Amino acid sequence: EVQLVESGGGLVKPGGSLRVSCTASGFAFSNAWMSWVRQAPGKGLERVGRIKNKGDGGTIDYAAPVKGRFTISRDDSKNTLYLQMNSLTIADTAVYFCTTEPLHLNWGQGTLVTVSS
Amino acid sequence: QSALTQPASVSGSPGQSITISCTGTSSDVGGYNYVSWFQQHPGKAPKLLIYDVSDRPSGVSNRFSGSKSGNTASLTISGLQAEDEADYYCSSYTSRSPLSVFGTGTKVIVL
Questions:
Q1: Interchain pair A63, B98: CB under 8 A
Q2: Closest in B38, B99, B102 to A46, CB measured
Q3: Contact B22, B81 (CB under 8 A)
Q4: Rounded to an integer, what distance in angstroms lies between the CA atom of residue A85 and that of residue A66?
Q5: Given A35, A45, A112, B55, which is the most exposed site by the fewest CB atoms within 10 A?
Q6: Contact yes or no for B86/B77 (Cβ under 8 A)
Q7: Residue B106 near residue B10, CB atoms below 8 Å
Q8: What is the pLDDT of residues B26-71, one digit of tens each?
Q9: For chain A, how big is the Rg over CA atoms in Å?
Q10: What is the pLDDT of residues A28-80, one digit of tens each?
Q11: In whole angstroms, how large is the CA radius of gyration of chain B?
Q12: pLDDT tens track for B55-64
C-alpha cells in the first residue's frame, strides 16, 4: 500500500524558515517524480513545485510565488521528499501535501504551516 | 500562471446528473490531453477521479466521467449521491512552470 506521511509543519514568524518532510513507502520512491501542493485555509489547490527522479535528471520546477524562496529536494536512501521554505510570508500559510507525479494519484494527509507574528 | 476557471458551486438532487466545467487556454486545457479531476471532502486530501481527460483510475466509480472541447474540460457526475457532496478541482498540464495548474474549485451541493 502506498503511503505518504508529511511532517514538520508548525507556527513560524514572517521572514522565518521551515522545512517539511514527506516519508514515502509502498512504492519505488527513487523512480518516482514527486510534487508539493499547498492549500491555503478555505482556498483552492496550488502546485508549489515538482522534482523528477535522478534517472530523468532530477529537474525541479517551481511556481512563480515561491521561486527563489522554496527548495525541493529528495533523499532516495531515506525515501524522503523535502520542502525547505525561506523568507516565509503570511500568504504561505497553508496545508502542504506531497503527492506522486505525474497524475497526483497518491497524496499524504498534509501538514499545516502557519506564518504569523 | 492563472488558475483554471470553474463555477463556484453546482447543485443537484439525488439521482440527477450534474456537469462541472473547467475553462483554460490553448496553453493548458486546449493544448494537451492531460486534464485531471479531483474530489476533496472537508479536512481530507484530494482524490484523483479522472486523468488524461476521460480515464478513471482503478476503483473510481463509473458515475464519474470526463470530456473536453476546445479550451474547456468537463466532469459529469451521474446518479448523484449524498456522498458526492464535496469540492471538485480540475488540473491541467501547462507549458509554463510549474508545468501544472489547478482550477479554482467547485463545491457540489446535493439537495
A1: yes
A2: B102
A3: no
A4: 8
A5: B55
A6: no
A7: yes
A8: 999 999 999 999 999 999 999 999 999 999 999 999 999 999 999 9
A9: 13
A10: 999 999 999 999 999 999 999 999 999 999 999 999 999 999 999 999 999 99
A11: 13
A12: 999 999 999 9
- Please give the grid coordinates belonging to residue B64: 464519474
High-pLDDT (> 70) share of chain A, %: 100
Give strand pairing partners of B110.
B12
Rounded to whole angstroms, how far apart are CA atoms B55 and A32?
A: 21
Q: Which of A35, A61, A105 sits opposite B97 (nearest CB)?
A: A61
Confidence of residue B90 (pLDDT cuts 50, 70, 90): very high
**Total number of residues shown for chain B:** 111
pLDDT at B16: 97
Per-residue pLDDT at A89: 98
Handedness of CA A69, A74, A55, A102 (dihedral sign): negative
Q: With helix as H, strand as E and coil as C, how does A5-70 read?
A: EEECCEEECCCCCEEEEEEEECCCHHHCCEEEEEECCCCCEEEEEEECCHHHCCCEEECCCCCCCE
Q: Which three cell numbers stand for residue A97?
A: 501535501
A window 30-49, beta carbon within 8 A of B: 35, 37, 44-49
Query: Chains A and B: how many Cβ contacts under 8 Å?
Result: 58
Contact criterion met (CB below 8 Å) for A104 and B48: yes
